[in-house]
């Protein structure tokens, strides 16, 4: 009888080492990825980097452009000084039309603040003189529609 018992115990020990008969381990399931609903109040369409000097809409404070994207300050708008920018945000574009400006014929489109709809300036869609080509795709915002925002001092 002892021999059979020993055999049985060895068999059991082996079984616990590699046990094809043991039931699948039941434990707590890993947490399922939960859907996170981000419900931040939508004020403006885009926000510029907080650590940059930037220009904002003077009427509603929507961010408009980074100081880094300023190309030139020596432009003339319909109501005074205007700045030329590489890129802008929160700005909508009207239909392009051909206009004769101080520097010749251009195709331009009025731009407005997406947030408060104020007309801010215009976008150069196309320049017809080679010396003015650098302005294509760039944006003019009149100074009286902008305020300096964040980190200027
Ligand atoms: Zn605005």
Automatic annotation (TrEMBL):
It holds the Pfam family Yippee-Mis18. The keyword Zinc applies. Keywords: Metal-binding, Signal, Zinc. One of its GO terms (molecular function) is metal ion binding. PANTHER family: PROTEIN YIPPEE-LIKE CG15309-RELATED. InterPro entries: Yippee (IPR034751), Yippee/Mis18/Cereblon (IPR004910), Yippee_fam (IPR039058). This is Protein yippee-like. It comes from the Eukaryota. The keyword Glycoprotein does not apply. Residues 1-18 form the signal peptide. Residues 53-150 form the Yippee domain. Belongs to the yippee family. One of its GO terms (biological process) is positive regulation of cellular senescence.
């Amino acid at each position: 009888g002892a021999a059979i018992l020993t055999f049985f115990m060895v068999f059991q020990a082996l079984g616990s080492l590699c046990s094809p008969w043991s039931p699948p381990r039941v434990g707590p399931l890993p947490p399922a990825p939960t859907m996170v609903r981000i419900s931040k109040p939508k004020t403006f369409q885009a926000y510029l980097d907080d650590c940059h000097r930037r220009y904002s809409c003077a009427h509603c404070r929507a961010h408009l452009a980074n100081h880094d994207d300023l190309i030139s300050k020596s432009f003339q708008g319909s109501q005074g000084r205007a700045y030329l920018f590489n890129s802008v945000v929160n700005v909508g574009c009207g239909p392009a039309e051909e206009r004769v400006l101080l520097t010749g014929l251009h195709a331009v489109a009025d731009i407005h603040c997406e947030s408060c709809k104020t007309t801010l300036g215009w976008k150069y869609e196309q320049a017809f003189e080679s010396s003015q080509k650098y302005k294509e795709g760039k944006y003019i915002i009149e100074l009286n529609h902008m305020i300096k925002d964040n980190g200027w001092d």
